[in-house]
Specification:
Helix content is 74%, strand content 0%. With 319 residues, it is mostly helical. Helix 3 packs across helix 8 and helix 4 runs antiparallel to helix 11.
């Protein structure tokens, strides 16, 4: 098996696990707020992340060199998690994914002011086409827009900002600093809401929050292995396979069937996103490759970003 095929298969397996992870979120979301799900998932997943951080042998402390950017990033991670989990809870799976797939478009646009990225006419047109796809999915004026739609759009926006902040300061901050701040923010912010939103959980539901944490960890490890086997231009587009799982799981577990607008809009969004990834892979086009550098799904404060785990692994292997 060649390295590119191996990377593609590993990433397909990872995103299949992520899609299953989102089904569990949707199931629990019918009874609990996204804050409660995030709090207990983070609490049960924290030992896994702690063991990884304990093996970091690089010198330094956990005080960020860019405290304001780090604080903004921590808050965007929490916001992405809360909004994304809520969207999965109340919207059809396929529709939620379609909106979240707009992240590469937003990253490309926001990279202009945040990173000084120059976007040419081709990527600019791809962004416009993708945004048309988002409008097809939402079809404002002909369909009722809910808080779930706004939450999904908000998650895509804050997830994009989070990715670009990592790209902006990641070269100067320790990986451990970039990992721990969003997780601590998630723990304290969602923990502060518990007196107001907590609903008693049976042991089975509590165990499912652990399943969310465990699946997120396993999927992250698989994506890391995928990126170590194949280039980003091979691995990154595999995230769109989640829409297939969404259609399958939605039909089997939630009696959801994507309408023609969702299918057409999703196809347009995916086509534009894949084009942006392929275009960024051309060395003369992008100085920062912000979309390719994104590596994986939006950061929610439960698991560190894949790019940070890769960066940390490379440093450890060099020590």
């Amino acid at each position: 098996m060649g390295p590119n095929l191996k990377g593609a298969l590993l990433s397909l397996a990872a995103f299949g696990i992520y899609a299953t992870h989102d089904v569990v979120i949707k199931f629990l979301g019918s009874d609990y707020t996204s804050f409660q799900i995030i709090f207990f998932s983070g609490l049960l997943g924290f030992p896994l992340i702690t063991m990884m951080l304990m093996s970091d042998r690089t010198d330094g402390n956990l005080i960020p060199k860019h405290p304001w950017w780090s604080l903004i990033r921590a808050l965007t991670a929490v916001s992405t998690g809360a909004a994304g989990f809520y969207a999965f809870s109340v919207l059809p799976l396929a529709q939620t994914y379609a909106i979240l797939f707009a992240m590469p478009l937003l990253i490309t646009l926001l990279a202009i002011p945040m990173l000084g990225e120059k976007v040419g006419i081709r990527r600019g047109l791809a962004v416009l086409v993708g945004l048309v796809g988002v409008l097809i999915v939402l079809r404002p004026g002909s369909a009722d827009l809910s808080w779930g739609h706004l939450a999904a759009l908000g998650a895509a926006l804050t997830g994009s900002i989070n990715s670009l902040i990592v790209r902006k300061i990641g070269g100067e901050e320790r990986s451990a600093v970039l990992m721990i701040w969003p997780m601590m923010a998630s723990f304290f912010v969602t923990g502060a809401t518990m007196p107001f939103v907590y609903v008693p959980m049976p042991i089975g539901h509590l165990a499912l929050t652990g399943v969310i944490a465990g699946m997120g960890f396993v999927a992250a490890m698989l994506i890391i292995a995928a990126y170590r086997s194949a280039p980003a231009v091979i691995v990154a587009p595999m995230q769109y396979s989640q829409i297939i799982w969404a259609a399958f799981y939605g039909a089997i577990f939630f009696d959801e069937h994507p309408d023609q607008y969702t299918i057409i809009g999703t196809a347009v969004i995916i086509a534009s996103g894949v084009y942006i990834v392929l275009r960024e892979s051309t060395k003369t086009v992008s100085k920062n490759t912000p979309v390719l550098a994104n590596k994986s799904r939006p950061e929610t404060g439960l698991m560190p970003r894949i790019s940070l785990l890769l960066k940390r692994g490379e440093r450890t292997s060099q020590d």
